[in-house]
Design a protein that fits this description.
alpha/beta; 5-stranded mixed β-sheet; D-Maltodextrin-Binding Protein, domain 2; globular; 6-stranded mixed β-sheet
Length: 362
């Protein structure tokens, strides 16, 4: 009787000990995310509100891994132009790189910037550029040289417009004025008599306009609303210059090499979902942002089709120059340009000027 009781007690203790030991311990992975722009910027805000929760949700499905997110924005670790270098050096594990600041290091990322007047649709441009980045290894190789792994390209603007301190009705009102831009879009001003481009970042434009350093600036309505541009530039010329990819999610290559495959897959999948999510928000907010600009005292003037065509025709073919430069470096610049234009045409966008056709004949 006693031996039977002892036996039962031993079995119960063994079962209790077995059930108390988890089959696998969940691994916590630290991830430092950086961007020099403030948390209120659309893409930063949605990284917090969409990207991070979506990664957490997908990882929770297996329970194998949990991310310890540490977000640093607004210049705490890097300035807006310093994200590429910051991720390269490991100051951040994941970064939102503003590619328009790095035309020499990331030349292929300028694809949509060198093709204005094609598509004022963030969703179409984001998908087309991201597909090309994955179809042509040359684009991802540029990030590899910067010690980074490419995840996805993002488009955060529906289309560039021109915001002005003084009334603006057509192309002639841009002649002889100083106009702020962020990079390649400054070349849109070539061909406009006396127009001078002044390089600046989105966070600089308010002060540049307020102090009279520039007369006008090229940005998009959602950003104009966020950064209160109507206060210093109450006139907008709706030129629909086009959507441009300007944000790319990257991961430090050394950090990436240490990540489990499951986490890598989730980050890649969520980056694409984030791409479409942000582009969708940009388009959804476009009309709302224009209305907000007017409510804040702004005036919007529609640029007519003839004026848009005249502006496009006045520009040098920067797309052909871009493609030729990559071709000369042994990269498929012309192929990427042709593919991009074909993708946008297939999505229903007819260009004001056919940059790819001209590139072939030049």
């Amino acid at each position: 009787m006693i031996s039977r009781i002892v036996r039962r007690t031993a079995i119960a203790a063994l079962l209790a000990a077995t059930t108390a030991v988890p089959a696998l311990a969940q691994q916590t992975i630290k991830a430092v995310v950086i961007d020099g722009y403030p948390a209120r910027a659309l893409w930063v805000k949605e990284f917090t509100n969409f990207f991070i929760p979506e990664v957490d949700k997908r990882l929770a499905m297996t329970g194998n891994y949990k991310m310890d997110w540490q977000e640093s924005y607004g210049g705490t670790i890097v300035k807006p132009k310093g994200v590429l270098e910051g991720v390269k050096l490991g100051l951040g594990d994941i970064g939102i790189v503003t590619t328009i600041f790095h035309s020499s290091k990331l030349p292929s990322q300028a694809l949509s910037a060198v093709t204005p007047f094609v598509a004022a649709d963030a969703r179409s441009v984001a998908q087309a550029v991201d597909e090309i980045a994955k179809e042509y290894p040359a684009m991802q190789a540029e990030f590899d040289k910067q010690n980074q792994v490419y995840l996805a390209t993002g488009v955060v603007l529906d289309t560039y417009q021109v915001f002005s301190r003084e009334p603006i009705d057509d192309l002639s009102d841009m002649e002889g004025t100083k106009i702020a831009g962020a990079g390649m879009n400054l070349r849109y001003l070539e061909g406009i008599d006396g127009a001078a481009g002044v390089r600046g970042g989105l966070t600089d434009f308010y002060n540049m306009l307020q102090t009279g350093l520039v007369d006008k600036a090229m940005l998009w309505p959602e950003a104009a609303k966020t950064f209160k541009i109507a206060e210093v530039a109450p006139y907008m010329l709706r030129a629909d210059l086009g959507a441009v990819n300007s944000k790319t999610i990257t991961v430090n290559k050394d950090y990436w090499a240490k990540l489990p495959d499951e986490v890598k897959t989730v980050l890649q999948e969520v980056a694409v979902a984030y791409r479409d999510h942000v582009a969708g928000i940009a388009m959804d907010r476009a009309e709302e942002s224009r209305a907000a600009y007017v409510a804040d005292g702004g005036t919007i003037v529609e640029m007519d089709a003839d004026q848009r065509a005249a502006w496009a025709a006045a520009m040098p073919n920067i797309a052909a120059e871009w493609a030729a430069g990559l071709d000369a470096a042994g990269q498929p610049g012309s192929d990427m340009l042709n593919s991009y234009m074909a993708k946008l045409r297939a999505a229903g966008h007819e260009p004001v000027r056919d940059w790819a056709a001209e590139a072939v004949t030049n």
